[in-house]
Structure formats: C-alpha cells, structure tokens
C-alpha cells in the first residue's frame, strides 16, 4: 500500500505526464458526434460511441491546425480523429486535440443501417406474426435476381432435381448505385404477375455489395407483398433487412430453391401415404357395410321365425 500523500498539483502533474506521454500520442478515435459548437477559432465536439450515449463521452477540440478532410460534418455523423490527448490541469479535464478529422464512411453506413433497422422493427416490419407459411404446391415461381451469374443457374439446377415448376426471371441489378431501384421495380413486377412464390436472391459479397438489400423502399415492398417471399442474400454471416422482412430467409440461393414446394420424393411419399389412407378408409367402409348386412340378416331371420309361430 502506498502511504504517500499527494498534493493536487503533484497528482495533476503525474496524470498529465501519463496522458500526454507517448502512449496517447498520435492515436485514432472513432465516434459519433453528439454535440458541436464553435467559439472563435476552435470547434468543440462531444464524441460518443455509436448508439451508446450513456457509456462515455470525450471532448474533441478542433483547432486551426487540424487537417479536416471532410469539412461538412454535423451532429449524428461518425468521424475518425487522429491526434493527441491533452490534460488541462486548471480544470482537471481531459480533451483530445486532433491533427486529422474525417467522416468515417463505413461507420456512418453501419449507424444509418442500425437506425433504419430499429425504425422498421418498431413498425412491426420484422414481426413473426406477419410471416406466412410457404405454399406446399408451387406451379409458378418468380425469381428476382441478376440475369447473369451463378445464382439463377443454381436455382434452376436445384429445382430440376426436385420438381418441375414454371420459373419466371425478373432481372435486376444486384449491386451498384441503381441496384435498389431496379430490385424494387422488378419485385413489384413479379408481385403484379401473382406467382405462387417469389425468391429474392443474390450471391455473396462485401457489406457494400449487399447494401441494396437494406434499402427501405425494397424492404417495405417485401413486407407488403401479398405473395410469400423467400429472401436469399449473401451467405450465413450476412443478414440483410430483406432477410428479416421476408416470410422466410435462406443462407444461399440454392437453399432457397429447396424451400420451393415439395420435391418429387415428397410428392411420391405423400401419394403413397394418401393411397394407404384411402385403402384403409375403403376397408373400414366395407367392414361397416358387412356389419350392417349381417344385422339386417339377423333381423330378417328373427321376423321369419315370428311369422311361422304366428301361423301355427
């Protein structure tokens, strides 16, 4: 146990030496701007972790020598700052003085996505009560995906080995700037044609590649569809908002195809089960008729004996 008694100035000096030492020099911090105000040549930013305002906060002091790479930052933005910690002994406060400041594009998108997810969830877009069972018999299947690539070929190959269905392709861009618009339009066209089932699919990719499937308009179209929809976007590690809004989600487009109606094996098995049930029903019916006939014969014999006794 340390019995040394520090004076305020001694302890402040130690804290300053630690915080302003090499350990906390030229470090990078990421956070969400909670507050922002300018006084003279300095801008004071209240920085917090994304979606965690109550956990911790840090004052960022942006001075005239800071290299601001993206100047149009505002409250709610996620930023990256690189610089040094500073300890102000007179107030006993810690602040961060950045040499470089920029908006974090990836962090910004993740924050936007999380806020949209919470908004849609609050409206019941992802509720289990809204999800419908998939039809057991599918005659017409609509597939919304790119006309090129492995996805549509994988779906066709899987269906060929299961049970023949009529497949209508509604082509759309599955990545890029206009992908969400073309996907929403293609999905709406598929809904208007009233198939038995719809698959919305694309293969794996980066989070940026999968971004169109997190588009609010597309998610709402999935939710409002009167036709059951299977969403198969990306791989197991990815969960898009369309996956959450759809009636069923699949890890891959190939798995989605296995959810389309019954396979030929299932049809044959069901036919055999129905055949067995029909045979059993017929046997039970015949047995019931035989019992009724036997009872009638007994009644007739009884009446015949009574008639004979009467005539004697």
Q: What does this protein structure show overall?
A:
The protein is an alpha/beta fold. The protein folds into three domains: 8-103, Nucleic acid-binding proteins (OB fold (Dihydrolipoamide Acetyltransferase, E2P)), CATH 2.40.50.140; 127-262, Rossmann fold (3-Layer(aba) Sandwich); 266-298. Helix content is 39%, strand content 26%. It has eight helices and eleven strands. Strands 1-2-3-6-5 form a five-stranded mixed beta barrel. It has a five-stranded parallel β-sheet with strand order 8-7-9-10-11. The protein is elongated and about 130 Å long.
Brief synopsis:
The protein is an alpha/beta fold and 312 residues long.
Secondary-structure arrangement, i.e. CATH architecture of the largest domain: 3-Layer(aba) Sandwich
CATH superfamily placement of the largest domain: Succinyl-CoA synthetase domains
Number of structural domains: 3
CATH fold title of the largest domain: Rossmann fold
What is the highest CATH level, the class of the largest domain? Alpha Beta
Which sequence of SSEs, written as H and E, runs from N to C? HEEEEEEHEHEHEHEHEHH
SS strand fraction: 25-35%
What's the main sheet like? 5 strands, mixed, barrel
Uncertain spans: none
Number of strands: 11
Distance between the termini: 128 Å
Which class of secondary structure composition applies to the elements? alpha/beta
Spatial sequence of strands, sheet with the most strands: 1-2-3-6-5
Share in helix: 25-40%
Backbone CA Rg: 35 Å
Which geometry do the CA atoms define? elongated
Helix tally? 8
Average pLDDT: 86
